[in-house]
Each structure stands twice: as C-alpha cells, then as structure tokens.
Write a structure and sequence with these properties.
364 residues; mainly alpha; 13 helices; elongated
Length: 364
C-alpha cells in the first residue's frame, strides 16, 4: 500500500508539472515549441470537427463549422489543464493524507476551485492545497491575460487581408492585382505594398509560431483567408519580377523571401515536411499553360510584359518553388476558401464558391 501511495503521488506531481510546462510553452514562451499535451488536444478536437465537416455539401457549411474550431480549442486548453491538475492532486492528497479516494477528491476539488468547503488539518497537506489553488487561478489568469494579445494579433492580420480585397478581389487573384495596379497607374510604384507585406509576413511568423492556434482563426468574411492572401501576394510579387517589363527594384524579391521564410516557420511548427533548398527547375503545382493563360490575360489588359514567355515562366517557377509546397499544405490544413493557385490545388481541396465564375488566375 505504501508503494502504491508513493507511486500515485509521484504520478500526480508529474501530471501537474506537465500541465504547467504545457501552459508556459503554449502561451508564455516567445517562440514556437512542440507541446505534446496542447497538440493532442488540438488534434482530438480537429478529429471531432472533421466528422461534422465531411458530410457538408458546400464550403460555406464547412466554414460555419470550422469557425468554431479555434475558439473552442483555445477554451479547451485550460479545461483539460485544470482537469489534469485536479486528477494529479487527487493522487497527491491520497498519498500524503492517507485518506480515502472520496476524501481526496473533495480535498482536490475544494482547493482547485477555491471553494473552501473541505481543507486539510495538517500543515503539510494544507500547504499542498494552497499550491493547487494558486495553480488553478494561475492557469485561468494566464488564458484571460493572453486573450487580448491573441485577438490583437488576429485583428492586425485581418486588416491587411481585408485591404487586399480592394487591390486583388475576392478571392484574391495575382493577375487581377497587377491589372488593377496598371489601370490606376501604380504598376511601377508597388514597392510600398511589398514593404507593407514584408512586415506582415514577419509578424505572422512570430505570432503564428508562438501561438499556433492563430493559424486556424478564420476571417470574418468566409471567402477570405490569411493563407490565400499570403499566396496571392507571393504570386503577385513573383509575376512582377518574372513577367512585367518595368524597372527592377529589390522590394518584391525581399517580400517573397520574407513570405516563404514565414510560411516555412509555420510549417515547421506543424511538422510539415518541405524541401528547404529546392532547385529552380523543380516542379511546381502551377502549370506552364496556366502561367501562359495569366500572361496573355495581363498582356491583353495593356500591361507591359516581357516578350520572352519561356524565360518569364522559368523565372516565375524559380520564385514559386520556394513556397509552393508549404503554401498548398497550409491551405489544406486550415481548410482555406477557394483561391487560384493556392487552395484550389491544396491536399484538402475545397469546392469553388458559387460567386466564382472565372478560370484559374482570374477573379470577380
């Protein structure tokens, strides 16, 4: 019996330590970290949500279901953590107080939720109850204090996603963004946009790796997504460098580098494999015929384009290969809405929403 009490006490302490470690590394540690407990919670809930999304006949129905996934997962973290602390201290009280299981449950519940209807009489167990109460309050305070930070990051992300609609339509289309820039006289003055999105990529790399659940928070508009916006900006920058016959500037190139580094960091956080050093001629998901279709569409709109289509294709593919795999995989992971050259060919394909009527590379 003594050995059993010691074993249960050690297991109880271990479960409490694991919970504290998970809470700190999930919300406090300012870097991406593999937290087994947090990952298990998120995966378990995702499996439940997948059961509800599979029968859905339209993207809109799946989006309504998945809109609840991230908030409920965020709320599930402290619930599971508190439950683990509750069970852990049951074992600790049973080992220390030499009491019955029912009494250990009463002591743990009273201490964790600071109810005070049952307290130990001896000093040692009383101190243990104080520690449990502090841990319970600390876990709740941790979530409450970090909610404004999480939603602040979400809000800043979505401001840029919403602004992209003005320039690239919904869903965002790289060709549409270039044509609109040409029609408004800004085709040669896009550098501030690349600089803005370079900072956006740097920020989402920090926020979406520190708090991974942010990747699953969906945009207020069901046909927008942070990952399809990222893909549209990267493809537009790649088209600008490979296709447009305008003076060269480095800003689009640095935007692409910031973008694929950010997407790779987020992919690392989800343990998504990719080639970190691809060759420029490696295959990509965009076909040459699709590229030429966009080339012709842009040229027909009067945008100055380079005459060597084959070289333009090779240059575009050389840029796209850096982010092609991670873009498509992340789009499938977060179940992004339809967008050309990203979620339309992701591992988890989405149905085209009824508002989309044009071919790949074009938008409303």
């Amino acid at each position: 019996m003594i050995a059993a009490r010691i074993a249960l006490g050690v297991l109880g302490i271990a479960s409490v330590v694991i919970v504290i470690d998970a809470a700190v590394r999930t919300f406090v540690l300012p870097r991406g970290a593999t937290v087994t407990v947090t990952r298990m919670i998120a995966r378990a809930l995702r499996s439940v949500f997948d059961l509800f999304t599979r029968p859905a006949k339209s993207y809109e129905q799946r989006d309504r279901v998945m809109a609840l996934y991230a908030p409920l997962t965020l709320l599930a973290f402290p619930i599971v953590w508190l439950g683990s602390v509750f069970v852990g201290f049951i074992g600790i009280f049973w080992a220390v107080e030499h009491t019955t299981w029912s009494e250990a449950v009463r002591l743990s519940g009273s201490a964790l939720f600071t109810l005070g209807f049952d307290t130990p009489r001896r000093v040692g167990p009383m101190l243990i109850s104080f520690v449990e109460a502090a841990i319970g309050l600390g876990l709740l305070a941790l979530l409450i204090s970090y909610l404004p930070t999480i939603y602040g990051s979400f809000s800043r992300r979505e401001v840029a996603v919403g602004q992209l609609t003005v320039r690239a339509g919904t869903p965002p289309s790289p060709s549409e963004m270039i044509i609109r820039a040409h029609r408004t006289g800004f085709a040669e003055r896009l550098d501030p946009i690349w600089q803005q999105w370079e900072l956006w990529f740097v920020e989402i790399e920090e926020t979406h790796t520190s708090v991974g659940i942010l990747s699953f928070f969906r945009s207020p508009n069901p046909h927008r997504s942070w990952i399809t916006a990222a893909g549209a900006i990267l493809d537009t920058a790649a088209l600008r460098l490979a296709l447009l016959d305008i003076p060269w500037t480095p800003d689009a190139a640095t935007c692409i580098r910031a973008g694929y580094l950010a997407l790779r960091a987020i992919a690392d956080n989800f343990q998504i494999p990719y080639d970190a050093a691809p060759n420029a001629d490696d295959p990509i998901s965009v076909t040459k015929s699709e590229f030429f279709e966009v080339y012709d569409h842009i040229a027909e709109a009067g945008v100055p384009v380079k005459q060597d289509r084959e070289q333009a294709w090779r240059d575009f593919a050389g840029w796209r290969v850096n982010y092609d795999t991670v873009l498509l995989t992340l789009a499938g992971l977060v179940m992004a809405p339809y967008a050309p050259w990203s979620s339309d060919r992701s591992p988890t394909r989405v149905h085209r929403p009824p508002i989309v009527r044009r071919r790949s590379g074009r938008s409303r």
